[in-house]
Amino acid sequence: MKKVVFSLFSIIAFQSFLFAQVVPGEKAKEFNLKNVDGKMVGISGSTDVKGAIVVFTCNHCPFSKMYESRIIKLHEKYAKLGYPVYAINSNDKNKEPDDSFENMVKLATDKKYPFPYLYDESQEIAKAYGATNTPHVFVLKKNANGYNVEYIGAIDDNAQDESGAKDKFVEKAVDELLAGKAVTTKKVKAIGCTIKWKS
Amino acid sequence: MLKLRVVLIFTFSLIIQLHTFAVEKIPVIKFDEIASILNKTNDTVYVLNFWATWCGPCVKELPDFEKFYQSKANSKLKMLLVSLDFKSDYQRLVNFVERKKISIPVVLLDETKYHTWIDKVDPSWEGAIPATLFVKGSVNFRKFHNGQINFNELKTIVSPLL
Fold first, then answer.
1. pLDDT tens sequence across B21-57
2. Which of A109, B2, B47, B159 is the most exposed place for a label (fewest CB within 10 A)?
3. Closest CA to B132 of B53, B77, B50
4. pTM (2 decimals)?
């Protein structure tokens, strides 16, 4: 009986570990990952910024593709205001060969990504943030001790048609932070591809 | 020549009929239809699989769903493949279902403001697909499975409920 209770407990503990996600307001883990240019890049080394827009995305996912140009626009609009985009691919290349580092380099070159496109090969950063889908955005605000998570979720409310998007959640969150306000909508879920975890 | 014409007309009308049949086979629904299943109190076991033709792991698990569905024919199991393909990709979905010879009922859920309904399926769901929900209203049973699932897992969850 003890054994059963123990194994039940460990299953529950394991599951909650699997799905643990940072909560808006919590401290964000800092990262330093290999960029498509071969250099190590991360929020840790950033000075003169107010925060960051961290986007877990990948090459192959149709939803990531639909948002590619919108992610570029977010960077173009907000990097100069202190909120640069960091795109991170955490997918296991064995599960999804399209998401290998070589293919990341190719995509970043083809699309002229103006932001770092980082390879989370160990999947440690995706796990630390509790990222589950692509694209999955985490808006971070810099403070004296590092970064805090301020928003988690979707870029906007219309994946298929950018011009049809009414609620631009990430823009609204960053605009509020820039205005010195608290973020009103802190979390918005959306359908997306699952992150391909290593087995 | 007349014979050829007749054959041609017959073939075309058959194609049109088949096409119409396929189109009618996949209803386009709104979330309230899903909600009504979630609120059922009868002893039917409902298995709702959220998927899309563009989703690799979803497509991979479909044969297991199909095999399980066929193994439980004549039981109180109602399975529904809830496609999250866009309405504009409707024909792609129809073609896919025909090509893969899927016998499980398929619907296209046309609700792209995802944040308005994801939590109603399950609060632990972040929106990644595939995802599967099991419901048996008469005993207040509800189980949500995140990610790919196989035949044995389906059996383990569903069989004790039937």
1. 444 589 999 999 999 999 999 999 999 999 999 999 9
2. B2
3. B50
4. 0.87
